[in-house]
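Task: encode each sequence below as structure tokens.

Item 1
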Amino acid sequence: MNAVATTYTESLGQARSMSRKAQPAKTSSLTKTEDQLIARLRRGDEGAFDALVNQHHGALIRMAMGYVADREVAEEVVQDTWMAVIESLDRFEGRSSLRTWIFGIMIHKAKDRGVREKRHTTFSAFESYDDDNDKANDKAVDPSRFLQSGEWTGHWAFPPQPWDDQTPEKLLASQQAVNAMNQAIEALPATLKEVLILRDVEGVEAKEVCELLKITETNLYVRLHRARERVRVAVETYLEGKK
């Protein structure tokens, strides 16, 4: 990772020279920490850029893989993203967080790359994803987990464990369970993977996720619920198999 980040930072001086006349954008909507980070980046602080790459590179790769053919192409998309960040930094206006801005650049580039790879059918399927009506073969929760008869028909027969701050610590007790969770995330369709990574991995605020992905808050929470449930089922299936 350091070698990759170093490659990016070698171009930072050139980009700054090209945009030296640009005026710093107002960043009133950013936190003090973000303002300080952006100031360091604009000064060409390689340490700041290296830290930024290390912080977000992995999540960017995972999201990019939802749009392009394979990891190698995803790596190229993310490299292009970092170069665009370098070249556009002085034009960043601070209307969103720096992180959200970076992810927005990546999503735009990944979609463009996917189209060039003739993945129109796949993207059409993503865009037509119905958040209100599941297909019969795309249920977020297995019907067998609900009671089928009696007074409590339709209620949980086997309720899910809460998805809360304790879950990661519990899963970390078993590296294999973590691997099962990561595999489940990788297997998610792009519309579900992107919301899960942005909200639960990167911690982006719901409002910013909606603006970034151009979806409603209702759609966000429906997709997030489905993504979490699929990952939960995969991990529970793994844990059941270990008993």
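Item 2
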Amino acid sequence: MQFSHKWCNYAITFKKNIYSMSQVLDKEPVKRVDKLLKIFDPNLKIIHLEQTARTANDAATALGCNIGAIVKSLLFKAGEEYILCLVSGDKRCSLNKLKKLLGKNDVSMASPEKVKKITGYTIGGVSPIGHLVKIKIYIDTNLKRFSSVFAAAGHPNCVFKIEFNKLTKITLGEIQEITEWNSQN
């Protein structure tokens, strides 16, 4: 159906965006994150983004923040165990530093299937909290540069803002120097 008045088009577009936001916020992974955030601190809220936050660059653009304030949640396989590294958006996780920290030579990125199975999230929406399997978490020291950071909330269009010290508490993560400079930024 076509309308001749511009306000009708705006109203239809507005309603469509609210509906899509509702659909996203009703997804189980997003609800899982939201529930844990509310238990930890009722003031923490999920932010729904119109643009995707699948990458650190996408998230920083959508939020209008420094790319370093974006938390990348990266799952690694070390032998038979899995480790989640929370890395500043402008850095790369150093496999050499991770191998040294873990005392293992066999460390690699987890497959997308394993990411989904272990964390319960798809790549681009991996939250630092609410994983299906208990895993060790390391937090990049570079995230300390920011009083607040943004992390994925279970969907590529959802994030939450959290103070660095609260991120360490909610994840029970261990702060470590696990990164190197990212030449792509």
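Check on item 2: The chain has one domain: 6-181. The beta strands are 46-48, 70-78, 81-88, 91-93, 107-109, 136-140, 148-152, 158-163, 174-176, 179-181.
End of task.
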